[in-house]
Design goal:
This protein has about 450 residues and is α+β, with helices and mostly antiparallel strands. It has ten helices and four strands; from the N terminus they run αααββααααββααα. Strands 1-2-3-4 form a four-stranded antiparallel sheet, with no helix packed on it. β1 and β2 form a beta hairpin. α3 runs antiparallel to α4 and α4 packs antiparallel against α9. About 25% of the residues are buried.
Length: about 450
């Protein structure tokens, strides 16, 4: 007996250690599961989905390519300020008659000559500098076009994501309604068996159950359609749509006015920049008659003319002043064309600003109405739930008819569906408001959205 006590203590200690190890393993596995769930939620969240989908969107890719095109045009305009290097290689022959004291001397001359020339435009009335500034402004407009493409793509994807979220949130209510109808049918069947309900009541309850099943099937079809739409827009299947909270935007925040990530949309910023570039291309009247001054440096690289001429030029320079005045009026017509293009671009910028302001002003009352409707419908839903609980008790006691109970259930689901639709319209309106005020990308992807 004395020897059994140490063994018992050893078994107790082993058991305690085993329990502690099991607890540590359970805690570690729970931590791993929590981390996996957190990663899954981060992966399925709207910002993560947008960050993956936007770079592959065709509209964004087109805008990105056009941005590179405008950058190359800016480089072309900048190269006009630098000198041009030209190398000329000449190989040929000629029949020559040379006069001397002895008379005429006819012979054949072969020429193999290489020359280099450096030409630099010193003065062009500022036209090249104006084109460089306009090209740089066009590049800024292309950047805003890229931003506009990202905004429009993000708005499309977000609206599809919100639609899927709306249906996912409505599905539990549909299942609850179906379960309530099934309980009601079972109750009516029991009462029919007991002789408390007629066959007509049972048939009415079964018809109501069929309506609920059809509505549930239609909602499932809408969910599959929303998933397919989001799949086509993003290129990947969304396993679970997570709740989205869109920030509020001040009602008096201007939709435009300053060019930047927080001042107006990419659409209007691009229009303003294009109008500015078009105005910079309208040159003063004096520039039409201004001369062009060029400096040219020449140097002979090699000369294998045989027989040699008596006078050879090894290097030289020249400054030329040239006036090009088309007598048919081409220069005047070009300036007039640039003037009209600038006026059209400015009018387009003004039209874009008015359109955005008009849509924003019309959107604000609808947002206020949707907010009030959501609050009122939430209270109405609570009232219908209380009425259904009381009505079912009264129906069992024979104080309410089946038609009244069915009407209460229909009214509850109609209110829940209406509230879901109003909440969706409210989110879509807030999304559109963010887009119209130029705050969409920072709101969805953060202060520095990935390119």
């Amino acid at each position: 007996m004395k020897n059994s006590h140490p063994m018992r203590r050893v078994r107790v200690r082993v058991g305690v250690l085993a329990l502690a190890a099991a607890a540590m393993l359970a805690a570690a596995s729970a931590g791993v599961r929590a981390q996996a769930e957190a990663r899954a939620q981060d992966y399925n969240s709207l910002p993560a989905l947008l960050a993956r989908a936007l770079p592959n969107d065709p509209q964004v890719r087109v805008a990105q390519t056009l941005l590179h095109v405008n950058d190359e045009r800016r480089k072309q305009a900048r190269s006009r300020l630098a000198p041009n290097l030209a190398v000329t290689v000449t190989q040929g022959g000629s029949a020559v008659s040379e006069t001397s004291l002895l008379g005429f001397n006819d012979f054949e001359r072969s020429a193999q000559r290489a020359d280099a020339a450096l030409r630099w435009n010193l003065y062009n009335a500022g036209n090249d500098l104006a084109e460089l500034r306009a090209s740089a402004t066009d590049l800024g407009a292309a950047e805003q076009d890229l931003r506009r493409a990202r905004e429009e793509s993000a708005e499309r994807i977000t609206q599809a994501y919100l639609d899927l979220l709306r249906i996912d949130e409505l599905l539990p209510r549909m299942r609850s309604r179906l379960a309530s109808v099934q309980r009601l049918v079972a109750l009516v069947r029991q009462q029919n068996d007991a002789g408390k309900a007629s066959d007509a009541d049972l048939q009415q309850a079964q018809a109501y159950l069929l309506d609920a099943e059809i509505a549930a099937d239609q909602l499932g079809g809408e969910r599959d359609s929303a998933r397919q739409r989001l799949l086509r827009l993003t290129g990947e299947a969304v396993v679970e749509a997570l709740p989205v909270v869109l920030p509020e935007v001040l009602a008096d925040q201007p939709p435009a006015g300053s060019i930047g990530q927080s001042g107006g949309t990419g659409l209007q910023a691009a229009a303003l920049l294009r109008a500015q570039a078009a105005r910079e291309r309208v040159r003063p009247w004096l520039s039409l008659a201004a001369p062009r001054v060029d400096l040219e440096l020449r140097k002979a690289l090699s000369d294998r003319t045989s027989p040699q001429v008596t006078t050879l030029e090894h290097h030289g320079w020249a400054i030329s002043v040239r006036w090009d005045v088309p007598l048919g009026g081409e220069t005047l017509s070009r300036r007039t064309e640039a003037q009209r293009r600038a006026e059209a671009a400015e009018a387009e910028a003004e039209r874009t600003e008015r359109s955005i302001r008009t849509e924003l002003d019309a959107l604000l009352p609808r947002l206020d109405s949707a907010r009030r409707s959501v609050v009122r419908l939430a209270g109405q839903i609570d009232q219908y739930r209380a009425l259904i609980r009381a009505g079912e008790l009264q129906f069992e006691a024979g104080r309410r008819t089946l038609a009244q109970i069915i009407q209460l259930h229909d009214s509850l689901y109609t209110a829940e569906q209406h509230r879901s639709d109003q909440a969706f319209q409210l989110q879509v309106g807030q999304l559109r408001k963010l887009s119209l005020t130029g705050a969409l990308l920072p709101a969805l992807l953060g202060a520095n959205p990935p390119g």
